[in-house]
Specification:
184 residues; 18% helix; seven-stranded antiparallel beta sheet; two-stranded antiparallel sheet; single chain; alpha+beta
Length: 184
């Protein structure tokens, strides 16, 4: 009978220890810096392509690390457009998949500035060339803008992306002694 009481007490103690495990709230808006693990170009990128990234620095809440430096992140090209005529620049829009926390929870990410896309910057030159061509040469001058190509987006391996946590997420911290202050 004593061994059964011991096992029952042990099970109750273990259940209590699990329920007292430290949980940290990772707040929406918390900065997560990423860098590309590959090159990315609007010339070759296509919607649906997977893009490899990794976390640049440990992400912390108080004193607790919730996402480790080097954690892999995947993004999917949501939209890509190569450069075009009339100074139309290339563009890449990425959709970020959730990142895994130290406690194995998934944390949703979003761009730091919503709606931010990677673009070139020659559209204004084409508009000036087209406008100037119209004034000087009439309708034939409109074709001048067609000869000014936009710029492709070219991002090298290691290019940085500023992202943030999309919504509040609870993370259970592994191997945290019961009763230790989580710093939050």
């Amino acid at each position: 009978m004593a061994p059964l009481r011991f096992l029952g007490s042990l099970a109750a103690f273990c259940a209590a220890a699990v329920s007292l495990a430290a949980t940290v709230l990772v707040p929406a808006g918390l900065s997560v810096r990423l860098e590309l693990d590959q090159e990315l170009s609007s010339k070759t990128a296509r919607a649906g392509d997977r893009v490899r990234l990794r976390v640049v620095d440990d992400v912390t809440v108080g004193k607790d690390v919730v996402i480790r430096k080097g954690t892999r992140v995947t993004a999917v090209v949501a939209e890509a457009r190569p450069r075009g005529r009339w100074g139309k620049n290339g563009m890449i829009r990425l959709s970020l998949l959730p990142v895994q926390s130290v406690g194995k929870a998934t944390i949703p990410l979003q761009p730091r500035q919503k709606g931010k896309e990677f673009q070139g910057s020659r559209t204004d030159q084409a508009a000036i060339a087209t406008g100037g061509g119209l004034v000087l040469l009439g309708p034939v001058g409109l074709l001048g803008g067609a000869f000014i190509p936009g710029k492709d987006v070219e991002l090298g391996k290691g290019a940085k992306l500023e992202t943030e946590v999309a919504r509040d997420t609870e993370v259970d911290l592994p191997n945290k002694p019961v009763g230790e202050d989580s710093g939050s």
